[in-house]
């Protein structure tokens, strides 16, 4: 039995952030055909996560990052 896409979307959006991220990763894996590219992205994501967790870098809100980028190019 298939779930209508709009119902599935509601269910997914009700998941917590970590579960949505996990689902996103699995969906992307399903579409990725070149494992070299997929492995490179995974390696990069893990490197960035480690930098945040270790405190080497801190996260910036999206709006603030965009504002900084716009300030640099203007």
Comma- or semicolon-separated keywords:
74 residues, extended, 4 helices, 76% helix
How would you describe this protein?
This protein is mostly helical and 74 residues long. It has one domain (5-73). Helix content is 76%, strand content 0%. The termini are far apart.
Structure at a glance:
This protein has 74 residues and is mainly alpha-helical.
Residue windows where pLDDT falls under 50 for at least 5 positions: none
Mean pLDDT: 90
Could you give the distance between the termini? 54 Å
Indicate how many domains the architecture comprises: 1
Secondary-structure element pattern, one letter each: HHHH
- Proportion of β residues? under 5%
The largest sheet is: none
Number of strands: 0
Number of helical stretches of at least 4 residues: 4
Helix fraction, binned, reads over 70%
Structural class: mainly alpha
Judging from the principal axes of the Cα atoms, what is the shape?
A: extended
Question: Secondary-structure blueprint of this entry?
Answer:
Layout: H1 5-13, H2 17-31, H3 35-54, H4 62-73
């Amino acid at each position: 039995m298939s779930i209508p896409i709009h119902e599935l979307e509601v269910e997914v959006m009700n998941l917590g952030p970590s579960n949505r991220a996990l689902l996103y990763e699995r969906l992307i894996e399903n579409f990725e055909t070149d494992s070299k590219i997929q492995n490179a992205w995974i390696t990069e994501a893990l490197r960035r996560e480690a930098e945040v967790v270790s405190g080497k870098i801190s996260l910036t809100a999206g709006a603030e990052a965009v504002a900084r980028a716009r300030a640099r190019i203007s």
